[in-house]
Amino acid sequence: MSSGSTPAPFRSLLQTEHTFADRHVGPDAAQVQRMLDVIGVATLEELATAAVPAAILDPHGALAALPPAATETQALAELQALAARNTVTTSMIGLGYHDTLTPRVILRNVLESPAWYTGYTPYQPEISQGRLEALLNFQTMVSDLTGMDLANSSMLDESTAAAEAMTLLRRAGKSRSNRFVVDSDALPQTLAVLATRAEPLDIELVHADLAVDGLPDGEFFGVLAQLPGASGRVTDHTALIAEAHERGALVAVAADLLSLTLLTPPGEQGADAVLGTSQRFGVPMGYGGPHAGYLAVRTATARQLPGRLVGLSVDADGDPALRLALQTREQHIRRDKATSNICTAQVLLAVVAAMYASYHGADGLRTIAARVHRHAAVLAAGLRSGGVEVVHDAFFDTVLARVPGRAGAVVTAAHDAGISLRLADADHVGIACDEASTPEHLRTVLAAFGIGTDLDETVPDALPPAQARTSEFLTAPAFTAHRSETSMLRYLRALSDKDLALDRTMIPLGSCTMKLNATAEMEPITWPEFGGLHPFAPIADAAGMQQVITDLERWLVEITGYAAVSLQPNAGSQGEYAGLLAIRGYHRSRGDAHRDVCLIPSSAHGTNAASAVMAGMRVVVVACDAQGNVDLDDLRAKIADNAGALAAIMVTYPSTHGVYEHEIGQLCQLVHEAGGQVYVDGANLNALVGLARPGRFGADVSHLNLHKTFCIPHGGGGPGVGPIGVGAHLAPFLPGHPFAPGLGGDVPSTGGAVSGAPWGSASILPISWAYVRMMGADGLRRATTTAVATANYVARRLDEHFPVLYTGDRGMVAHECILDLRPMTKATGVTVDDVAKRLADYGFHAPTMSFPVAGTLMVEPTESEDLGEVDQFIDAMIAIKGEIDRVAAGEWPVEDNPLRGAPHTARSVIGEWDHPYTREEAAYPGAGIGGLDTRAKVWPSVRRIDGVHGDRNLVCSCPPISAYSS
């Protein structure tokens, strides 16, 4: 061996290493080959050729424009460099976004904990009691602070909550008017979103300075007031609300939750709905999101309330148990008659906000609010003493200063000193104080105005005594029992232990793609360089974040084959809506405003129909054939029936039935020939990335679920990001925003803002950035083909036990398969619910139940689950089939067997026992089956829950303290 040469045994170590894709993709090469052997193909590429229609299949290497895969270390170093390019000033801009101090126990044990951020929407409540309790706390917090009867478990943001409140008031009221009065002192981003939402629904917005001029003349169905106003002004709305009611209108108030610890809540002033955001309750600004908005209503309109609602019911033992109530899956039931297209929430952020309130309690929140207000009052006094006019005498946290002709100079001086203020106009500067404000910040602001920096802390408050809050709030034990960090830590652990999330088991949910959310992807979201950015900060201050946005848009364009991407929509439902608005704007720009028919296959996600109605379109349903494909003959007939009015078709690809439809190209051609546009729902994009691009095979627009395909975690039912990709002809109609003039469309008929922040939930975009950066083109294609292989492996192994309902032309499924339990149910009485609940006893989350076909289970294993976990799930399903066979044979009665009794709690199996099956069969099923024998036991915390009882006896907040004492 010559001097300096590398020994042969070690030379290969310098040339090979595990890639990130090796860590993200669960099955190794040997496991993949085992699956391929069962499927009957030799390689993943052969599988892709067999499953994906040749007409749309991209060759290997088609995504060559993506950067080569980076290691975790490299990607994080690049993100750190981008983060360092951001200038995080002390933000005093306000407008609904405020700095906040997240308690570290909550930051580490909720926001950074996979037990919380990898959970799914709690459709299986027996294994979701922890997050359901946290959401019930959120609802209680909101209803207490607003003075309303009940609140939902969060909205996407404040602006979209205002839009939902507007349509709720229209549905709930008796007025036939189409006019909606909006306070001119409402948040400007809310005004923009309201304008977008109102136009397709033929709602006329009437702007009025409610505090000065009162209600306008004429009829109107509703009113939106702001408390405090965008200018900071605090107004008593009691008389205005009473007058609106006398005139037949309902009233919504957008309210700052922290201010309501000191001010009379809108519910006590007579409001019919109250909305806002919980962002300042411990959730970083994050350049706009994600944050948990809220919407609270009276009991009379509870069944009109959009979004998620957690309710209290009882389980099979009569014990209290929580579940989603009322409109749990309303879009899939009511479709175009749904009250909203929202099918998710901001659960993870709602949990943070609820725990913030729990940790501080009523007294702590009052103290924080009082400190915020004192800073504002002292600042106002300092400005006045320096000769600066303060516009409003009554305010909570925001001071509006009038400095004729020099507002820009003041804002610049403050920014040079490290503080961002709001440039309201050439004559006015807005300064918002928050939890992080200090006396030194006040002195710096005063200096920017060119006046003395002495602070007089003896000045009086600026809140009208007549508006002081006198009612109690947050009296339930959840808000009084956890003042110490030890207590809060144990509470959070106790709640998370009641749940099944991805940190404990696979979640094989069809259409929801519950894949790995890698730690390296998650790490940057809590970096202060990203979290500390205000969404309306000067664009130069967000240079690093803007580069993340630009990179991700460019990569998504390459992956989808579209010409442009907007990242503004902050949920898949909002992406659907934004995409349809782009189509609407395109037709109207061409003089085709009469094109308003949207064709939707009968198998489609229910949100599609609801989104179409919101975009001002009429829904026409297209049938599916016996194989689950869109029936082209019926499509031709529906096109002919609506030839001149056709606006679009919304089609999910691969189909909602889990197959690659070979006629997708023909479908696109038929619609285009009739003058329509093709919307491809991106819910199933995990079966396309690296294999086929919607923008290349005929689609005009798609929404992309970053919380599915691109690894943003579901968070127990949110956050999400639902950007849209569009063809070049639709790019001018992408969402715009009043605080980002260069964003979105460049024509008057552009769709307008669909979210409160210009780039939506920007702080979680680094997750998807890191995923694409670390996977590279080859890794992304490998992930897709492995997902398809795993789904086909599950389908082949389970087909003899639970027939697979739909397959493609070559007997293949895409990334998911539908197991048909209907013949079994008919023969034995065992239902899909029984199977789903029994899986909890085996330690698994259930697949998607009864969607898109009632009485079925839709399974999507994803690429992240290794073969051992997949085989254990298959073994559990086969074992359950064995239990069903025993029911069929008469060994166990239909009404008393392990499936009907599932899930079994620890208490239930040690108590009195009079069942025909043993305690062991109840609690430890699958005995003697290899992998299942070694699986960690999961004990559900409640028995099967009575949903009907919960809906008939609606309780959606924590019981009062008297209930505990009794």
Automatic annotation (TrEMBL):
Residues with the N6-(pyridoxal phosphate)lysine modification: K708
InterPro entries recorded: Aminotrans_V_dom, GcvP, GDC-P_C, GDC-P_N, GDC_P, PyrdxlP-dep_Trfase, PyrdxlP-dep_Trfase_major, PyrdxlP-dep_Trfase_small
Catalytic activity, reaction form: N(6)-[(R)-lipoyl]-L-lysyl-[glycine-cleavage complex H protein] + glycine + H(+) = N(6)-[(R)-S(8)-aminomethyldihydrolipoyl]-L-lysyl-[glycine-cleavage complex H protein] + CO2
Segments forming domain Glycine cleavage system P-protein N-terminal: 22-449
UniProt cofactor(s): pyridoxal 5'-phosphate
Keywords: Oxidoreductase, Pyridoxal phosphate
Coiled-coil region list: none
The keyword Oxidoreductase is assigned to this record: yes
GO terms assigned for molecular function: glycine dehydrogenase (decarboxylating) activity
EC category: oxidoreductase
Record-linked Pfam families: Aminotran_5, GcvP2_C, GDC-P
Ranges where the Aminotransferase class V domain occurs: 599-708
Metal-binding as UniProt keyword: no
The protein's assembly and partners: The glycine cleavage system is composed of four proteins: P, T, L and H.
Family label: Belongs to the GcvP family.
Alphabetical list of PANTHER family matching this protein: GLYCINE DEHYDROGENASE (DECARBOXYLATING), MITOCHONDRIAL, GLYCINE DEHYDROGENASE, DECARBOXYLATING
NCBIfam families per record: gcvP, PRK04366.1
Protein name listed in UniProt: Glycine dehydrogenase (decarboxylating)
Species whose genome carries this gene: Rhodococcus antarcticus
